[in-house]
Amino acid sequence: MRLPITDDNRRWWTLAAMCFALFMVMLDNTVVNVALPAIQRDLHMSISGLEWTINAYTLVLAVLLVTGGRLGDLFGRKRMFLFGVVVFALASAMIGFAQSEAWLVGFRAVQGIGAAFMMPGTLSIITHSFPAEERGKAIGTWAGVSALALAIGPVLGGFLVEHVSWQSIFFINLPVAAFAIVLTLIAANESRDEGVARTIDVPGVAAITIGLGALVFALVEGNQWGWGSARILALFATAVIGLVGFVIIERRSRAPMVDFTFFRSREFFGANAVAFIVTFGMFAMFFFLALYMQNVRDYTALQAGVRFLPTTLLIIVTAPLAGRLSDRIGSKLPMVAGLLIVSGSLFWQSFLTTSSGYGFLVVPFMMMGVGMGLVMSPMSTAAMNAVPVTKAGVASGILSMTRMVGGTFGVAALGALITALGRDRLGHLLPQAGSGQLDKLADALGAGAAPAGAPSSAMDDAFVHALQGGMRLGAAVVLVGAFVAAATISSRRRVPANAGQGVDAAQTELAA
After folding, report:
1. What percent helix, strand, coil does the chain show, rounded to 5?
2. Domain 1-196 CATH superfamily
3. Which part of the chain has CATH 1.20.1250.20?
4. pLDDT tens digits, one per residue of 415-465
5. CATH 1.10.10.10 fits 262-495, yes or no
6. What angle do the packed helices 77-96 and 10-43 form, to 10 degrees?
7. Which residues of 254-275 are buried (b: 16+ CB within 10 A; e: fewer)?
8. Which pTM value belongs to this model?
9. What parts of the sequence cross the membrane (predicted)?
10. For position 155, what pLDDT does the model report?
């Protein structure tokens, strides 16, 4: 059957292809968490191996997002996007056949490579396909699909793991990828940055890979190894050297990966700052509230996932509406309002107790959904409208990287705070415990089963007490984000000077 694709509706078919691919990536983020216990039993994996099942993907994805976006600008966004989809799908299949811990973790890293080419590709292709006056609507739909995958993931993952197998959560990516590939080949136009030579900035790629890799690795392992340990300090030093070296290299390169003049735009700088801040709060909330619901309130993984639906479903509804609103009145008002609501949600959650029922969390979960929906699509629209459309790939990569690093930093920072506050609380609850024992107990906070000799009531009390402080920190950080958005984002709808280069230019650029 031939798809009814015309020049008038081609951009919407292109949006559908990008949303299918994004759905696959975001779904994978959530279904894997539900499957971890089954994977552990089947492959006899260690706790460290389970952690790296998540971290290998996150680390590679965060490090390569800018590179993936820039290579799309240079060699064709459609081409690099399709490369990412194929790599992601093949890696998914290989994970489904995994026979060992090393096999699974290795191909999770390969999945991260595919996702690093796909994620900036989706946003840059959408930006290039839609004129500026429709871009907010399109990006709002894109953000809503992302939230839909987050909502469906725990429920679908729990069903597949329980009734089929954990391998099925990876095999399900194959038909989704096939549909996305076919639709992209038929509907999407090729586009690239024709104003620069098609040469890869190898020193820049190496510097940013080393710098970001060391930074994300330090954030992931900081709580486990100790923030003052020699290994973590060495990683932070490597990150500084790599990132400073990247800036120096880019300023001297004839064909830099990142044009730092982007950041002279208050809107681009502000949108990226907000991206870091809002994912700082959101990722930390999902991570630690999941532990609270499962290990303090004794919900199963599926039951906990279902209880997050008020957040994710309201993002699905609100994000497209916020995108259309930003097309009409600009991004500032919805972003500021959304950040204030998210801050209020986190502050509300800071009053939970060990006996708080789900009814206490329903309203702040709904507030989080509305707030995130108001922020995400206007934030992305502001960032993409602040740069020339020919630089959409690298701009999208920077925004996606900022979000990933913000989320990783949020989990790490709140984890360190919760460990410190929890240890102090345990010292008051268990005055007979020695310093070494308190350190071990603090490391076990939120893990569910209390270590031998430690009352579970004391462990739960200490974890929730610490979680209260963590949520207040998150609320304060997001509140700062509202002031940043108010100071940097324009109150009027911004249409870039080259706005017309979207759909029309795509027709004239080389197809490959």
Report:
1. 80, 0, 20
2. MFS general substrate transporter like domains (1.20.1250.20)
3. 1-196, 262-495
4. 778 778 888 888 888 887 777 777 777 766 655 555 656 677 788 888 888
5. no
6. 30
7. eebbbbeebeebebbbbbbbbb
8. 0.74
9. 12-32, 52-69, 81-99, 105-126, 138-160, 166-188, 200-220, 232-249, 269-292, 304-321, 333-351, 357-377, 398-421, 469-489
10. 76
